[in-house]
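#help-structures

NK: newbie question. if I give both the sequence and a SMILES, will the prediction place the ligand too? trying with zinc ion
OV: yes, paste both and it writes out the complex. here, I ran yours:
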Amino acid sequence: MAELRNPPGTFDVLPPDSGRWSALLATFARVAASAGYGLVVTPTFEDLAVFQRVGESTDVVRKEMYDFADKGGRRVALRPEVTASVVRAWVQHRPPTPWKTWYAGSNFRYERQQAGRYREFHQVGIEAIGSADPDLDVEVVAVGWDFYRAVGLDGVELLINSLGDATCRPAYREALLDYLRARLGQLCDEHQARLEENPLRVLDCKKAPCRAVVAGAPRQLDHLCEACAAHFARVVAGLDSLGIPHRIETTLVRGLDYYTRTTFEYCAPALETANNAVGGGGRYDGLVEEMGGPPTPAIGFALGVERILLALDATSAAAPAATAPLDVFVIDFAGGEAARDLSAALRRAGLRVDRAWDGRSTKAQFRAADRAGAPLAVIVGPDEAAAGSARIKDLRDGHERSVAAARVVAEVVDILRPTGGTG
Ligand SMILES: [Zn+2]
Ligand SMILES: [Zn+2]
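OV: that's the protein plus ligand as structure tokens.
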């Protein structure tokens, strides 16, 4: 029989490595909740049109969409990102604004397999819909910043730019087009062919020919209207006030068409790759309208789970989740009843408990207890079973005591309770 394997471009996350994964998600949930963001869960697939609205000229929509016709003949797509789904949900349900949400989940892109690129990848993010206040931009950037600090990823660099709005961007786009048309032959092949479609994408092209041309190109920051300039100044002042270091990067445009005004990226120099971004986002003041809603400003970011874990690996930072996975391991070589009943009783007291199965030998059970990393073992052999007692062994120092079976839960709780506190 052929061996069954995970599909190309996907991967499994197994314990104990998944402990870092769940710790990262828990930290994100905590940081987002601390700023008033609530969990939003949207479908993993949507009507293809939902994602086409984010921009027909982007690679995400043009080349990488994981779309297909389902058995009912509907054109659907596995989501390439979550923002479009969240905006679709807001337009559909119209919750009161400002609507502040966070999410965690899988995204998909269909492309040729290459190192470090997955067809299914994972992001956490927040979206705040319904406010144009520049201080909200500061809050959003700060939530991401605080999250990186909370997971121990040091050295993150924040790049920030303004892309203007419907008032000032068209004139800038023309100025940029004029400049690039005059140098068309010097651009990379792709951008020679696709310049007219989206000249802004040339700005963040990583290829040497485009980079050389872009160095002298007109900058959106010099073409902002008064309102956009004031907005950007307020955001920069806010970041200064919060002590969040940042670098203004005038070529930062991000990969999606819908961004307006504030655009930002978090980079981890530890990754040492051409693209070392570990997250990014920005304002998308026009997207709600694109999705069929009323004109409604909004801002958000998405952070890459795999890339953050890679960056943590590349720094000497301690990985998240260094806590012991278990509190107690129950060792029972007197028939198994104590393991069955004591494990349940200890778990009901709020402890993390595991045990061995299949009547393993005493030695095998002690080995399992060591591997499990629990600080305490509760041991029941034939003598203890006959006497209605159990031994509690501290696996850290070998200290052992015998207690009545009925006292085991209270004793274990007492031993594990942190000392020095008031409770
Ligand atoms: Zn290029
Ligand atoms: Zn403007």
